[in-house]
Amino acid sequence: xxxxxxxxxxxxxxxxxxxxxxxxxxxxxxxxxxxxxxxxxxxxxxxxxxxxxxxxxxxxxxxxxxxxxxxxxxxxxxxxxxxxxxxxxxxxxxxxxxxxxxxxxxxxxxxxxxxxxxxxxxxxxxxxxxxxxxxxxxxxxxxxxxxxxxxxxxxxxxxxxxxxxxxxxxxxxxxxxxx
Length: 179
Prior knowledge:
Oligomer: single chain
Shape: globular
Strand content: 25-35%
Radius of gyration: 15 Å
Structural class: mainly beta
Number of strands: 8
Low-confidence stretches: none
Helix content: under 10%
């Protein structure tokens, strides 16, 4: 098993955890081909966000955000694959492909921000060949209120704003490596 030095939660507030599951993969599985990056040329990649469901979040939750983050990306700051916020509090799942721009699979009011590839929407796993095993954290953030940010903001800006409104967090992790 690979040893990982990057903890994506190290500088975040300690908040209660809840449960997130996926019909697309289980905790620790390899990222399935459709969730890999076609845009970055990964064979079989379709840039389709996975199905996600969550439960057990704090009662006072007023909105959710969903992110996908690769802390092993060789950037010094990881790589954000997906950032969507202001999902209504009564939404407890997203279907496969909800991160596809123009798909109409996100609920009204949800705001998608640009990923680190520069586009708004989900971009699949694409670690550099020979770089080793990467983890992909699909994180659901329970928020005390919607963020109310305009589209186009960077993942770091969204994360900074979530820091002040996060009241719970759940994640499921998949891995991928290109040899």
